[in-house]
Amino acid sequence: MIFELFDNHFYLCLMRFLCCLLLSCLGTNLLLGQESEKLSEDLVFSSDFEFNEGFYIVYQDFKNNRPLPFDSVYGTADLANADLIKKVLSEDEMVYSYDGKEIKVPTSRIWGYSSNGNVYMQIQNRFNRVLTIGRICHVVASITTMTPVYTNGMNSFGMPVGMGVSRVPTTEIKQVIFDFRTGQTMDFNPDNLLLLLKENIALKDEFAGYSEKKRKEKLHSFMVRFNEANPLYFPE
Fold first, then answer.
1. CA proximity to 112, closest of 134, 144, 88
2. Could you report the per-residue pLDDT of 162-199, keeping only the tens digit for each?
3. Domain encompassing residue 84
4. φ and ψ at 63, to 5 degrees?
5. pTM, two decimal places
């Protein structure tokens, strides 16, 4: 009798386990199917990809290819796109209509804009064209830094009073990359590229195997190879 009860209990537990396992598998397949369906509905980025034109208020607008349309900006109804962009970027803030409401945003906070098939992102209050778009994006930008200048101080009598330090702005052209997934920008150098290549072990190991001089020479080619191996998708 005891063994019979034990057998029945074991049988019930086994059936419950198998039912749970079956439901779990069905749920996983359903999620994978939805993910696959979602991916198939996305648009693969290519050289002839058409970006929607307008302002990217935040980075996510660029990532989703959903900019604020130019005609949503107040006071620009009669302007061509080029004149509209020039007018907006010359002012301290942009006023636009969204969901029936008037919204103001400082121009310095606008992430970028898209026009004539090109994407521009803002770095230090300058809008720079994104030259390479992919999982790794590439921009050439004018970057201003404050450089220390050391001078010998003099008092009103012309006597030296010690060394003084002042800082002067210095502007130089720099290459910048950013991770499409996060929008995080960084200098385009071997160390930063190596961080982004970590998803592709073969490329990462190949790049790391070169000398420092060779890595600098191969920066662009490895960025291109990584982008080709990792297609970029935009929502349809």
1. 88
2. 566 677 888 889 999 999 999 999 999 999 999 999 99
3. 45-123
4. -60, -35
5. 0.74
What is the distance between the terminal CA atoms of the chain, rounded to a whole angstrom? 65
Q: Is residue 165 part of a domain?
A: no
Which H or E run includes 37?
helix 2-41
Number of domains the chain is built from: 1
Q: Is residue 84 part of a domain?
A: yes
Residue 202, token pair as written in the block: 């073969």
User: Which structure tokens are listed for 55?
Assistant: 């302002």
CB 184 within 8 A of CB 99: no
In a domain, 155, yes or no: no
Is the residue at 40 inside a domain? no
Alpha-carbon distance of 181 to 176, in angstroms, equals 16
Residue with tokens 């059936």: 15
C-alpha–C-alpha distance, residues 2 and 28, integer Å: 39
Token couple for 184? 């995080």
| pLDDT tens-digit map of 119-159 | 999 999 999 999 999 999 999 998 888 787 776 666 666 66
* Six-digit token string for 138: 């590439």
Block residue for tokens 């620009």: 76
Positive/negative CA dihedral, 215, 221, 226, 229:
negative
